[in-house]
Structures are given as C-alpha cells and as structure tokens.
Amino acid sequence: MEESTQEQAILSTPEDQPVTAQSSPKQVRFAISAFYFMQGVCFASWASRIPTFKASMGLNDAELGSILFALPAGQIITMFFSAKLTTHFGSKKMLKATAPLYAIALTFLALATTGWQLAAFLVLFGITGNLCNIALNTQGVAGENYYGKPIMSSFHGAWSIGNLTGALIALGLVNLKLGMYTHFWIIALLSLSNVVFNSKKLLHYKKPDTPIEKTKFFTMPQGILVLLGVIAFCSMATEGTMFDWSAIYFEDVVKLPHNRAIIGYASFMFMMASGRFLGVFLISKFGRKNLLQISGAIISIGMALAVIFPNIIVAIFGFMLIGLGVSSIVPMVYSIAGNNKKVPAGKAITMVSSIGYFAFLFGPPLIGYVSQLSSLRYSFGIISVFGLLITFLVTKIKAIN
Q1: For an engineered disulfide with 89, which of 93, 298, 308, 331 has Cβ 3.0 to 4.6 Å away?
Q2: Burial class (CB in 10 A: 0-12, 13-18, 19+), 120
Q3: Tell me, what's the pLDDT at 64?
C-alpha cells in the first residue's frame, strides 16, 4: 500500500520546478534514500505485527480483511489535497512535518485493544503516510534531476530494503519477547533521528513562476491504457496481499510458530528489493514485453508452489519468486504508458495508476472474505490467477518493445 502512493505521488506533483541545495548531489541522494528507507521500515513494522493484532483481538479472517481496508481509506482521504499542500509548502517542509507524524502514528497502533480502535488508528496511519509519501516522491523526482542520472529506481529500492530491514527487526524483537509498543517507539525514534540528521540535506523548491495546469482528478482510460491498468491492478493486488497476509499465511497455513511467521514477509521483501535493483539489467536483457510475461509466470508459479506444498522450504521459495515477479511490473507498466504517443505521459500514467490503485483497496480485504468462506490457503490461489492474467494480457499489447 505504501509503495502505491510512492509511485502515484510522482504523477500528482510538478517535476520541473527549480530547486536549490546546500549539499552535493551525492549527499542529497543519500538523504532522500534515507527517508525512503525509513518509510519502508515504518510500514514493515506494522505489516510484520499483523498476526499479533489478529491473535490478540481474536479476529477471524473476514474481520481482519475489513479492518485492513482502513489503511488505504486513510490514504484516499488525503489524495484530494496532499499534492496541493506539497506544492504550496514545498516537499522539504512537508517531509520535516509529516515524517515525524507518520512515525508517531505507528506507535498509536500498538495502543489499539479492539478492532474499531485499530481501524481508526490505521486511518490515521494512512493519512500521515500518504502526506509523507507525496512529499517524499516530489523530493525524489527533484533529487533525480539534481543528480543528473535516472536514480528513481534506487530510491524505490531503498524503500524495499527498508521493508526488509523492518521485517528483520520485528523478527528479532518478537523473539526477544519485546512488547509491540516498545518496538514501535524504537522505530519511531529511529525515524525522528533520520529527520534531524538528514532533512537539512534535502532540496528546497522555488515556487514556479507560471501556474500549474489544472487536470481532472480522474479520466477514463481507453485502449491500451485499460490493459496496462489491469496489469497494474493484478500486480498491486499481489503486493497488497503479500504485505498484509504473508505473515499470517506462514502462521496459519505453513504452521510456523508466531515468533517465526515473519519469515514469509521477509523472504518476499528480500527478492522484491533485489528485483528492483536488477530491474534495469533485466529489462536490457529480456525487453519489457518478455520480462512482463516472465514476471507474471513467476508470480503464478511461486504462489502455486506455496499453496500446493505449504511446507516451510517450498513456501519460502514460492514467496521469493512472487517478490521477484512483482518487483519490476508496475515501473515497467508506468514507463510503457508514459511513452504512449496518443496521450500525454502524465495523463496516461495517471489513468493506468487509477485502475491499479483500486487493487490496494479491494485486494487484501477480498483475501480475508474468501478465506472466511473457504480457507486462507485457497484464497491465496487467487494470486496465482492474477499472475497468469498478467502474462495473458501482455500478449494482447503489441506496442511494447
């Protein structure tokens, strides 16, 4: 979910505003990467503890699925004005204000004792997270321009590495039997320290002399953009499911003890992060169309293995395949949409991302509802179908090199 707002934020903010900086390009890159990294750590800290919330509150899968809807709902609340706030105040000021709020909102989650309290705090977590991510990606675009090389994928890679790190920290602290509230405050303090030490190196925006062209919030996509949107939807639904349900799958289906169930989430994030850094090489080797087809097949095979053979070795391998499969799909889809000759780049990507974003709203809750009607194991089989659908749809798009 957090990652979707990372990618969408770029579409909602001006990319060509002049910036000033007192730091070298390398220092700016490091500072921005540090913010991406800590965003990933914060999100993973919540995601890794979902099984704890489920067990402590006695939630069934359907109830948990409904509660998980609260996080993207909070993100949607801010979608209408977050870009305007970032443009008005500048991404540097917004990051200095919202990164601490996001970290503190994480600690509130540990105070929840009932399902409705958890849902309320998740809405707050989503609101602060989206505000922070919009500002962060605006800063990321400026950082890429300031650095002079295409380094945006490395920023997203830093987010994925942060996710993996957050999962490993959670794994260690759970085994040390450290309370969730203490755990979340440790992460919050790390995030606050990052703001103190690295915010000075961020880029400062100069307000543009000309007004930004107003665009519609949503435009109905057509033709190839519909197919690309469905591909993005399938990939994002897979990511959302893995973020929210992978640890629970390893606890309920693979039958790992509670203090080791995070291994499923960590294995997925490890390969997703690796795939992000390998993305440029893989695209140059296979081409976008072939890599999209391969990625869809890898997702399907990985999930099929984890569902058919739910033992720890095969399930970890399957989740690693899924992480590798989803790692490059959305960036490639956005790149293809942006190079569409019939629709302006920003508008085309917005159309595609608008379809894909609904996956985070409906994907994780759907898994919970289907699981309640059948089982979590069979509900995960839906993801295998998504992988096959990606591979099939790519064959229908000729305008991919």
Answers
A1: 93
A2: middle
A3: 93
* Secondary structure string (H, E, C) spanning 212-245: CCCCCCCCCCCCHHHHHHHHHHHHHHHHHHHHHH
Helix, strand or coil, per DSSP, at residue 205:
strand
Q: Which long-range contacts (CB under 8 A, 24 or more apart) does 156-159 make?
A: 156/3, 156/6, 156/7, 156/36, 156/276, 156/331, 157/273, 157/276, 157/277, 158/33, 158/34, 158/36, 158/37, 158/40, 159/2, 159/3, 159/6, 159/36, 159/37, 159/39, 159/40
Average pLDDT value for residue range 180-201 = 95
pTM of the model: 0.81
Question: For residues 329 and 336, what is the distance between their CA atoms, to the nearest angstrom?
Answer: 11
Q: Which helix (H) or strand (E) holds 55?
A: helix 50-57
pLDDT in tens, 199-212: 999 988 655 444 44
67/76 Cα distance (integer angstroms)? 15
Q: Provide the pLDDT for residue 14.
A: 45
Distance CA 353, CA 337 (A): 10
DSSP, collapsed to helix, strand or coil, labels residue 107 as helix
d(CA 72, CA 125): 9
Token pair, residue 361, equals: 């709203």
For the chain, the first-to-last Cα distance in angstroms comes to 29
Query: CB neighbours of 36 closer than 8 A, spacing ≥ 6?
Result: 6, 136, 140, 155, 156, 158, 159, 162
Amino acid letter for position 357: Y
Torsion angle defined by CA atoms of residues 232, 237, 243 and 246, in that order, rounded to the nearest 10 degrees: -130
Comparing CA positions, the residue from 99, 103, 139 lying closest to residue 9 is 139
**Which tokens in the block code for residue 338?**
């942006």
Helix ranges, 148-223 (H): 152-175, 180-198
Residue with tokens 């700016």: 28
Residue 19: helix, strand or coil by DSSP? strand
Find, among 5, 139, 155, the residue nearest to 72 by Cα. Answer: 5
